[in-house]
Amino acid sequence: MFRLGLRRKIFVVTLILISGVVLASGLYLQRQLRTWLEQRIDDELLHHAKIGGKLLEESLADAGDLAGQRARLDELAETLAVDTDTRVTIVDAQGQVVGDSQLNRDRTPNRPDYSSRPEIVDALRSPVGRARRVSTTSSAEMLHVAVAFGEPSPRGAIRVSATLSDVEAAIARLRVLLTIAGALGLILAAASSGLASQLLARRLERLVEQTRARHGHGPTDADLEHAGSVAIGTFGRLTRELDRAVERVGTERDRLDTILQSMQEAVLALDDQNRISLANTAAHRLFSRTSKLAGHALTDVVRVPDLVDLVARTRDEPQSGELTLPGPPIRRVLAHVAPLRAQPGRVLVLHDVSETRRLEQVRRDFVANVSHELRTPVSIIAANAETLLAGALSDEDAAKNFVDAISRNASRLAALIRDLLDLSRIEAGRYPLELRTISLEHPVRRAVEALGEQSAVKKIDLSFACEIEAAARSDSAACEQVAVNLVENAVKYTPAHGHVWVRLVDADDDVRVEIEDDGPGLAPQHRQRVFERFYRVDPGRSREMGGTGLGLSIVKHLVDAMGGQIGFRPSPTGGSVFWFAMPKPPQDDDDTASDSRSSS
Ligand code: ADP
After folding, report:
1. Could you read off the pLDDT of 223-263 as tens digits, one per residue?
2. In angstroms, what is the C-alpha Rg of the chain?
3. Nearest CA to ligand 1 atom 20
4. Model-level pTM greater than 0.70?
5. Among 227, 234, 256, 196, which residue's Cα sits nearest to residue 13?
6. Which atom of ligand 1 is nearest to the CA of 578?
7. 64, 378, 475, 582: most buried by Cβ count inside 10 Å?
8. Shortest CA distance to 440 belongs to which of 295, 270, 580, 555?
């Protein structure tokens, strides 16, 4: 049903189109043909009239009344008319007919007055006159062209007339041809529209079949009636596919944007003028910008000649380099510039390597420090051993001194190696730590007692106080080692007869162990740095006391590994307060270990 309807529609549309084209072109051609033919007839009539005028001027060279020469003029008119298949009329200066091919043929004795005929009036006034009208005698449409003759003033005019029936005949022939062409066109149109609708119908049928296969039932009458909507459905499906494609592109763009924004590296897209067209969050962070970077010239944002050079150098191949960005804070960055493929411009990626470079420097310093620290005792041992071998062995007193020095430096070397090993084990996470809820009182008390003798030798008053319930999450042995190091330092650096107070205090969520002394204290510039490896306020004095410069560093690493905090504050006595704090256990924690290893 839909096939017939559709086919008829296609046919009607084609019919209307072809008819329209044939009609419009027919009308146009008809007009053009009429104009062209009439122009040709007009030209010919004018040509004949001019020749006739010349002949008249020659044959009427002698003056005289034209009316008196009527017979001659009639004959002349007829001769001209026969030769040109026209009607030729000769009038005198007053417009009276003095010769006419037609009247002569018809033997009409009375000559009409043509003085008011427009073509005659025009010809006698200006040399040429034209008119077209339906002839009263033949009732055919005639074209008249008249030309004046005689010099200097016109003696008369010669008019040549022809019927336009030839024009009408030619146009009628054209109409017939156009009708045949139109009919042929329509037949072709009917055939091609039939073919087209057949193809379309087959496609629609396939669509209907597919619908049936998908929905499990064949097309109903209603389906067929509305099968036209299948075609619309096809367009709908195309639209949906386009929508989906647009959506996919949008999702892809969002995904890329998310990746770009979450990158740690600063990414900047530059146009061919090195103007920033896109910048991610990391770029804004690197250049400490809250306002948009896009739209600014790169040189307005960062004035680093090395970077500008690197960007300028990047043409076809990517370029890389490491450079410093002015602070604050000053940063070392790895810059990578690559040309854009699809459009002119470049992509600049900046990777902040400040922390990596700092760590590398720390490591280099550490290696240099270790070598330096090891070299001194090793060379002392070697020198003393050589001296002994060279003969000092025989001198008992001297030998004792040399062996003494060897022993001291060997101990120092052993202490250094022990501390280095401890440090590397803690850093590598290989130091066995068992974090449990313990009372910090016991390990700290043991540490204080371990240093009792040392403090007594220096006559230092070492006291311990714990008036709180000191339960905290910690490792007992590690805690004891931390406390031993800090109390030992306090005893070591406090002059004889000084005081060292060790106490445990409650500090909100932590239990804090404070080791206060009235020794020399620390100048502000040393307070943070004393926790660094090999940092000593007075290297000579530290070595003299058997210090390795690693004690506080080990302490800090251990406390960090246990999840605690460590710090320094000056004591009101002018000395130091070193402290470390361990977190209290959560309320419902029952993982309590009894650490009652008392020193008593
Ligand atoms: P060392 O083995 O030299 O003692 P540490 O890491 O334990 O190394 O200490 C680093 C530096 O901190 C010491 O060289 C010393 O100058 C300073 N220091 C540590 N504890 C105290 C203290 N209680 N009073 C004064 N200075 C201290």
Report:
1. 555 655 555 566 678 778 888 989 999 999 999 889 988 88
2. 61
3. 489
4. no
5. 196
6. 23
7. 582
8. 580
Say how many Å lie between the CA of residue 506 and the centre of ligand 1. 26
Residue pLDDT, tens place only, 460-517: 999 999 999 889 999 999 999 999 999 999 999 999 999 999 999 999 899 999 999 9
**Does the beta carbon of 69 lie inside 6 Å of ligand 1?**
no
Q: Does domain 357-427 have CATH number 1.10.287.130?
A: yes
Q: Domain locations in the chain?
A: 6-169, 228-258, 264-352, 357-427, 433-599
**Edge-first strand listing for the sheet containing 87-92:** 97-100, 87-92, 156-163, 141-149, 128-134
Ligand 1, atom 23, lies closest to the CA of: 490
Q: Establish whether residue 493 lines the binding site of ligand 1, counting it when its CB lies within 6 angstroms of any ligand atom.
A: yes
| Cα–Cα nearest to 228, from 249, 201, 247, 210 | 201
Ligand 1 in reach of 104 Cβ (< 6 A): no
Question: Which residues does the chain have with pLDDT short of 70?
Answer: 1-7, 10, 61-64, 197, 201, 204-205, 207-208, 210-235, 588-600
* Closest approach atom of ligand 1 to CA 546: 2
The residue behind tokens 């033919």 is 37
Domain formed by 433-599, architecture: 2-Layer Sandwich (3.30)
The CATH number for 264-352, chosen from 1.10.10.10, 3.30.450.20, 3.40.50.1100, 2.60.40.2470, is 3.30.450.20
6-169 adopts what CATH topology? Answer: Beta-Lactamase (3.30.450)
